[in-house]
Structures are given as C-alpha cells and as structure tokens.
Amino acid sequence: MSYQIAPLSRLIEQLERLPGIGHKSAQRLAFHLLNMPEKAAEDFIGALKDAREKLQECTVCCNLADGELCPVCRAGNRDTGLICVVEDPQDVMALERTREYTGTYHVLHGTISPMDGVGPEQLRIKQLLTRVAESDVREIIMATNPTVEGEATAMYLSKLLKPFGVPVTRLAYGIPVGGDLEYADEVTLRRSLEGRSRIE
Amino acid sequence: MSYQIAPLSRLIEQLERLPGIGHKSAQRLAFHLLNMPEKAAEDFIGALKDAREKLQECTVCCNLADGELCPVCRAGNRDTGLICVVEDPQDVMALERTREYTGTYHVLHGTISPMDGVGPEQLRIKQLLTRVAESDVREIIMATNPTVEGEATAMYLSKLLKPFGVPVTRLAYGIPVGGDLEYADEVTLRRSLEGRSRIE
C-alpha cells in the first residue's frame, strides 16, 4: 500500500508548486510547518494574508506599495526627472540595494511576450506615458532584463516615447564584476566590446 | 533611504525562517505567493491550516495520522509482529518508499539528546513498551539514524526491551549503493567490513 495521509500529502503538494521547491524540500518544509508552535504558525499565515491584502500598486510608478505611494515615490528626496523603467518590483529592490540610484522608477509588471499572451495593454505602459506627458522628465533609463522579451519591450517603449522628446537610455551590458572572460558568452563579450570606454 | 514595504518585508522575513530558505529564495517565494491567483492562495493557506488542525498521532504507533490510526496501522495487511522503531514520521515515508517492509512502525518523535534537553520522557517510549507488553511482537528493528543520539537511543531502548525477551535488531551499516569506497569515511568502511556477508 502507498503511504498517504491526506492533509499531509495536500500540504506537500502545495509546497511543491512553489518555485525552486522540489519534492524533498517540500517534505522538509511541510514537517517544519507542522511542528511549528501555534504562535509561529499564526504569524506565518498572518504575514502571508496581510501581504496579499494590503499590498497595492503605487499610483505614480506602479511599484508595490502599502499605501497610495510606494516608499520611493513617498520619499520626497528622489529626482523625479529621472525614471528607471523595470520589469518587476524585485528589480526595484535590486537597484535600491546599489544605493547609487537617486531617481524614481516605473514598474511595468512584465514584458511584452506574445508567446505567453502578454501584450502591451497588460503592462503599465499607459501609466508611464501619462506620467511622462504630465511631469517634467529629463531622462528615461530602460532597465528591462537583457532577454529577448526585455529587449523588445525596451525598443517598443523607446519608440512610443520618441514624440515626447525625452532622451531614453539603456543599462550597460558587459562582463559582470568578478566574472571571468573565459566563461563569458559571446554575446555578452561582443556587447562588452561595443560598450568599451576610454580609461582616463 | 532603504526600500521597505512593511507587509512585504514581514512576509520575506517569515519565509526566511523556513529551513533551507535563504534571503534570495525567500524574496522569490514572497513574490510568487503575492502573484498567486486568489483561489490558489486560499488552497495554499487552507492546506497548511488543515494539516496543522487535522493531523494527530496514531494511537498505536505514534506516526502522523488523520484519524485514530495511521495508514500503516489501518491497512490490516501489515505484519504486526514486526515493529520498526524510527525517529520521525519522515523516516516512515522513506522506508515505505522501499516497498520492501511489510511490518509496522513505532515513531519516537526524536532521539534522546541531553544537549537539546530531550530526555526519554519526551519520546514515545512508554507507548512502545506498552505495545510490546500487550501484543505479540516477534522482532523489533531499530532504525534510528546512525548519529551519536540515534545510536544512544537505540542502545537505551534495547536495554529497556530486554525483559520482554523480544529480539532487537539494527539496520545494516555500509557503503551506500552507488557510493564510492574512496569517498566513504572510515567509520562507515569499518562498519561495512564488520557487517560483511558471504556471497553464495
């Protein structure tokens, strides 16, 4: 007979659906969640429900927010003349970690991907155009991922933005810091050659 | 400024506490959980709550069960004269996967570990002794893990079980199938030599 305890199997099954969680990890997680003290389990479920209920999109940049504005748009000390266009809220987190960028963002929530049935109308493109039309924007930095979809989306947007006369730029491609030339793929190497700069 | 959206940070923090989940994975999981359709999120939370509420210990073997008896004890076609003593319900799952063992189990829910403040009274030892005293047991197989605590617990139990006159055995130690002699540690090799058997 096969060993099946319905509520346990269901929990393991649910955990297996999460990204990067295989069967063994799902099992280990399930037993961990089962053995948690009641209070810890309540906190866990509470945090999940809370995040799903309270998080909304920033009315300016479409980033995740727990109010009308996201922390970046709310901050007041960011350069609103600079908009960095990214695919997802995760990318905002990554760029914020550099502590280098002082402008604002615009989160598309995806890329144009006809294969997955995602067209421009599913992205927050209208909001970006309205924003550029209504405020004083000096530069728009395309920071979509260097994938086919990311590139295509950046190209599409730069065409749409042309009539506004705002310069549109692109993040630099190249060898990752700490990377090894030997292991870099040819496309990255080619881009890295094209983008070479003079050492002063 | 640091990028902090309270409900999101709390969710990531909760996920980071899970075993084997680092910060990056927690972040990825959080966004996955946030982007889930409402129905899927309800199923996820439901499975977790359900498992925590419905799972109890089998009244015979202390394995996890969704009723009075676990699937093994409920099956009716298992050899109740054979008891395999394991540390955790996970071990039952692992042994069941072999499709080899037809006896029953007894789940201790841990090992004796004075360092972690776990004494014999926290384990399901009393239940094991009662079971051996009250039913017709032919053999008890110790299948605790080959760790210091697992060994000590097996030794302790075999002493406690002596008065019942039931033979107590131990799982074989040795080189794992597919393993390499070259990489086996000395203790395993020594045990594997001691346990050698004649090729017929």
Provide an overview of this structure.
Two copies of one chain form a homodimer. With 200 residues, chain A is of the alpha/beta class. In chain A, 44% of the residues lie in helices and 12% in strands. In chain A, the strands form two sheets. In chain A, strands 4-3-5-6 form a four-stranded parallel beta sheet. A two-stranded antiparallel sheet of chain A has the order 1-2. In chain A, strand 3, helix 5 and strand 4 form a beta-alpha-beta unit. At the A-B interface, helix 1, helix 2, helix 3, strand 2 and helix 4 of A face helix 1, helix 2, helix 3, strand 2 and helix 4 of B.
Brief descriptors of the model:
homodimer, two-stranded antiparallel sheet, alpha/beta, 8 helices, 200 residues, globular
Radius of gyration of chain A: 22 Å
**How many alpha or pi helices of chain A?**
8
- Amino- and carboxy-terminal Cα gap of chain A: 74 Å
What is the strand arrangement across the widest sheet of chain A? 4-3-5-6
Write a concise synopsis of the structure shown.
The structure is a homodimer of 200-residue chains. By secondary structure, chain A is α/β, with parallel strands linked by helices. Chain A is built from 8 helices and 6 strands.
